[in-house]
Structures are given as C-alpha cells and as structure tokens.
Amino acid sequence: MSIEKHAAVSFHKNPLRDNEVPVFSVPIILQCDDLSGAHSKKWNVHNQLTFRNGALSNTELAKKSNIHLFAVTANAQPLDIVSEFVRQTKSTYSQPVKVWDATLKTEVRVRPFLYLILADNVMASTLCSQVVTGNNTLPCRTCLDGGTKKERTEKRGLTAIVKAGEPRTAKNTIEALETQRDIAIEGRSTAYFDEQRQSGSKDDIVKEITDILFELRTILQGKVPSHPRTPRRKLKKPAIDKQFKEEAEALCEDLWYNPLLSKDRNGPALGELHVFDVHKQSPVEILHTLWLGPVKYLACATVTLVNKDILRTHLEGLDTDGLDCGAIVPAKYLLDHTQSLNGKEFKLLT
C-alpha cells in the first residue's frame, strides 16, 4: 500500500482569514412593502426596503431599533431598489467589511448574505417574477402545479392543491423570461402574453424592455408617422430586423431581468455566491393567505346564514384572556363589520 496515499493533506487557509482575523457570516432578512406616504387617507404609494440581522434572537429581532431602513421612494419600482441592495450585498460578501468588535476587543470581518425575503403575496410575486393572479396557468410562486381555472375546480385539481408540487426554481423562471424576450424581439405580442400565462412568469424589468421593443418595431414599420424615429422612407424587413436586433442587444447588454435571479457584468448571481433561491426563500405570508383569505370568506358567509344575536351571545360568553390578538374588539363590532375587518380582527374572531 502506498504511503503517499495516506500522506498528510496540505490545507490552504481561506484568504479571508489572513492575519488570523475572525470572520462572521451574517444572515440578512430583507423586507419589501408598499405603503402610503401621505398623512391623509389618500393613497400615495411609496416602496420601502428594510433589513434585519437574522442572527439575532427573536426578542432582539422584534425590536424597532434592529429594523434598518435601506430605502423608501415613490420614484423607483421594488426591483429597482432590490437591484441596488443585491449589488451592495454581493460586494460585501466578496469583500467582507472590517469592523471593531466591542466584545472581542479586536478587528473582525463581517460577511453578510441574503437569507430570507419577507413580503405580502403580491410583493413576493413581484420579487419572484411571477404573475400574481388572474388567468394564469401556474399561479404558485414556489411550485409548478396549477392548470386552467376549470381544471383547478375539478377533483384532480383540488387534490393537487394540498400536495407538494414540483418546486419552481430560478432556472425555470430565467428560461421563461428569456423566451418572453425572444418572442418580443420577433414582434409576436399575442404569443408574448400567452407565454406569461402558460409559465406564470412576469418580470417588471423585462416588461419595460419588451414594451420598448414592441413600440420600436411599430415605429420602424412606419405605423406611427408622428414619431421622431419613424424612418422617412419605408424600410425593408432585413433593414428593420438589423436595426431592431442592435437595439435589443443594447437593452439587454447588462441586467435585464430580476436581480434576485440573474448575474450581471459585475459578478455572479446570488445563488452562485451562496445558497439562495428566491422561490424557496420567500415564505408564504399568513395575513393574506389565511386571515384575509379563507377565514374572511368563511366569516362573511357565516354571518349571512346564522342568527347574529345568538352568535354574538356565544362569542361574548367566551373567555378572551390570554389571546395574543392585540386589542379585544367587541363581538357586535366584528359581526356588523365583517366585510371590512383587518387581519388582527379576523384572527381574534377565529
């Protein structure tokens, strides 16, 4: 037996640990939501991005002082803000930040990485590049199960809902977005929307680019005479295709879809740096999925079928001590305003 086979292995030290400097990996929990920037009841939408240190205990994590604001703006879309957050995250992951550790009394390096994304279902679908609702064959952002509306109401479809489907991955979504881009380059608008419905994938950044491409083809074909880019002479198809291809390549030269999925010229995708898949790491949000979903519809249906006075008497007779639902709202109010209750009130009613 060869001695060389069992010789001591020469391990190379991680370059991040030169000079014996401690390195701490910090999981980042990202939260994105839209909110109103007005004091009045008028809706004035602002997109907000905050983040927290996922390594903290639950008690510390819940403190407002540990919720850090990254950006809030009325001018940028969620994916635009996330794009900058991802850029900075990838930069600090590759080159950890040097800080002073007050406990260890020494210099350390902090290496943050994106661990979890928290958002309501609508925002989470946007961040996953998914169609939210409507005539969508694959409506789930985490799996590939679905079907037409008719199929989903049949026995087979209802059975599939309560079973785990084939996981949706970043690779699936990227392939669908690339197909949509190629269809837009060909100028087939009907096929473009059909592909969105079939795949369940829709990206705000891709939409901006494809809108430009569809409009440009119309202009180059001379169908918009008043547009400044309309050619003076009618162009032949090869000339239109050549100019169109150059424009499409310029638009897609850098980051042209969801930064949580893709890589750009400045480096690899998040999933190539560390384990990350936006479809798996954006958990289901309980407010809209449960309290404002089946619970709301069941409550609204119930109060129309039973005697409200009898139901109110039963509810008022219950012991509400210890319920973790915030302020205890009177039963009469819950039954009289079932259509307009918020999530906490539906939780209390349940």
Could you walk me through the main structural features you see in this protein, from its secondary elements to its overall organization?
With 350 residues, this protein is of the alpha+beta class. The protein has 14 helices and five strands. The chain has helices spanning 58-61, 78-94, 121-127, 149-153, 155-161, 170-186, 189-199, 204-220, 237-251, 270-273, 286-305, 308-316, 331-336, 343-349; strands spanning 23-36, 45-53, 68-73, 97-101, 106-118. α6 packs parallel to α8, α8 (204-220) packs antiparallel against α9 (237-251) and α11 packs across α14 (343-349). The protein is globular, with a radius of gyration of 26 Å.
List the helices and strands and how they pair.
Elements: E1 23-36, E2 45-53, H1 58-61, E3 68-73, H2 78-94, E4 97-101, E5 106-118, H3 121-127, H4 149-153, H5 155-161, H6 170-186, H7 189-199, H8 204-220, H9 237-251, H10 270-273, H11 286-305, H12 308-316, H13 331-336, H14 343-349
Parallel strand pairs: 1-5
Antiparallel strand pairs: 1-2, 2-3, 4-5
Helix pairs in contact: 6-7, 6-8, 8-9, 11-14
List keywords for this structure.
350 residues, alpha+beta, five-stranded mixed β-sheet
Concise synopsis of the structure shown:
The chain is an alpha+beta fold and 350 residues long. The chain has helices spanning 58-61, 78-94, 121-127, 149-153, 155-161, 170-186, 189-199, 204-220, 237-251, 270-273, 286-305, 308-316, 331-336, 343-349, and strands spanning 23-36, 45-53, 68-73, 97-101, 106-118. Helix 6 packs antiparallel against helix 7, helix 6 packs parallel to helix 8 and helix 11 (286-305) packs across helix 14.
